[in-house]
UniProtKB/TrEMBL annotation:
Domain ABM intervals: 5-95
Stored PROSITE patterns: ABM
Protein name: ABM domain-containing protein
Length: 106
């Protein structure tokens, strides 16, 4: 097994309308990820119960190359170009696995 490559992204959305539009954009993007990205091992979008205009993504890739391939996909480029209009803030944390259980372990 490889150590994998991951990240957590916290998106703060401008308002309820922006959150709804962002969620639709995510649905469109996920279709491409599921169909075309075997190196994307997990791409999970979370709502935050007490913060309705926050979404947290957990992304896990087989390796850095798989992440780089994800970033070059047309559906990802579309997401990255369109998301800004809905955001009031974004925070990205890159991760390196040290221990765990799952398809990729240290």
């Amino acid at each position: 097994m490889t150590s994998g490559f991951g990240l957590v992204v916290r998106f703060e959305l401008r308002d309820d309308a922006a959150a709804a539009a962002f969620d639709y954009l995510v649905e469109q993007t996920l279709a491409g990820i599921k169909a075309l990205e075997p190196g994307t091992l997990a791409y999970v979008v979370h709502a935050v119960p007490d913060e309705p205009n926050v979404r947290v993504f957990y992304e896990l890739y087989a390796d850095r190359d798989a992440f780089d391939q994800h970033e070059q996909q047309p559906h990802t480029k579309h997401f990255l170009a369109q998301r800004e209009q809905y955001l009031s803030g974004v925070d990205v944390t890159f991760l390196s696995a040290t221990a765990g259980k799952g398809p990729v372990a240290a």
